[in-house]
Design brief:
CATH topology of the largest domain: Arc Repressor Mutant, subunit A
Organism: Halobaculum roseum
Radius of gyration: 18 Å
Low-confidence stretches: none
Domain HTH arsR-type: 81-158
Distance between the termini: 50 Å
Number of domains: 2
Shape: elongated
Number of helices: 9
Pfam families: HTH_20, HTH_HVO_0163_N
Number of strands: 5
Order of helices and strands: HEHHEEHHHHEEHH
CATH superfamily of the largest domain: Winged helix-like DNA-binding domain superfamily/Winged helix DNA-binding domain
Protein name: Winged helix-turn-helix transcriptional regulator
Strand order of the largest sheet: 1-3-2
Length: 177
C-alpha cells in the first residue's frame, strides 16, 4: 500500500488519516475505520506508518486503542479517551455542577450503580474524579479539576455508534435491575 494511494476526494489516504486523528482526538480504531470508510488492514497500515513517523500516537484505555496527535498532553489524551464513552462523559458532565453522591449521579445518568462504578474506576485512576468520604463514611464524587475537565469535554464529539453502544448497555442494565 502506498501513501500515495489517492481515494475519491483527491488526498492521499495517510494524510486523510493523520488529519482526521488531529481533528478528532481519541477516536478508537473501529470508529476511525468507519468514519474514513477504510478497510481495517488499510487503516492499520497507515496508522502504523504514522506512529513510526511520530505523527499519531495510539494509547490503550479500557481495552480500546485510541489515536491522538502526539503533541497532546498524555493526561489530556487519557481524559479524552475516557470521555469518548457516553456513560463516563455523562457522569462527568453531571459533576460539573458540583460534588454529588454516587447514587444521585447514577440516577441522573440513567444507569445502574454498578455501571457507574465501572466507569468511575477509570475516571478515578485517571485523576478526573475523586471519591471523598465524610466522617460517617458516606461517599461523595467530585471532579479534581473542573476547568481541565470542561476543556477536554469541548474537544470531543461522540459518534452515533459510540452513543448507541452506550445506550444499549444502559438498556441491558435497566432490564437486569
Amino acid at each position: 500500500m502506498s501513501d500515495r494511494a489517492t481515494p475519491a476526494g483527491g488526498r492521499p489516504t495517510r494524510e486523510r488519516v493523520a488529519d482526521y486523528v488531529v481533528a478528532n482526538p481519541g477516536l478508537h480504531f473501529n470508529e476511525l475505520v468507519r468514519r474514513l470508510d477504510l478497510a481495517p488492514g488499510q487503516a492499520q497500515y497507515h496508522l502504523r506508518r504514522l506512529a513510526r513517523a511520530d505523527r499519531v500516537v495510539g494509547e490503550e484505555v479500557s481495552g480500546r486503542t485510541h489515536y491522538f496527535d502526539p503533541a497532546l498532553d498524555p493526561l489530556e489524551r487519557r481524559r479524552i479517551a475516557l470521555f469518548r464513552r457516553e456513560t463516563a462523559r455523562d457522569a462527568v458532565v453531571e459533576l460539573l455542577d458540583g460534588p454529588a453522591p454516587p447514587d444521585a449521579v447514577a440516577e441522573a445518568v440513567g444507569v445502574a450503580r454498578s455501571t457507574l462504578e465501572h466507569h468511575l474506576d477509570g475516571l478515578v485512576d485517571a485523576g478526573v474524579v475523586e471519591k471523598r468520604r465524610d466522617n460517617r463514611g458516606r461517599v461523595t464524587l467530585a471532579l479534581t479539576d473542573p476547568e481541565a475537565t470542561a476543556r477536554s469535554l469541548r474537544r470531543i464529539e461522540p459518534s452515533l455508534p459510540d452513543r448507541l453502544l452506550d445506550r444499549f448497555t444502559r438498556l441491558v442494565d435497566a432490564l437486569l435491575e
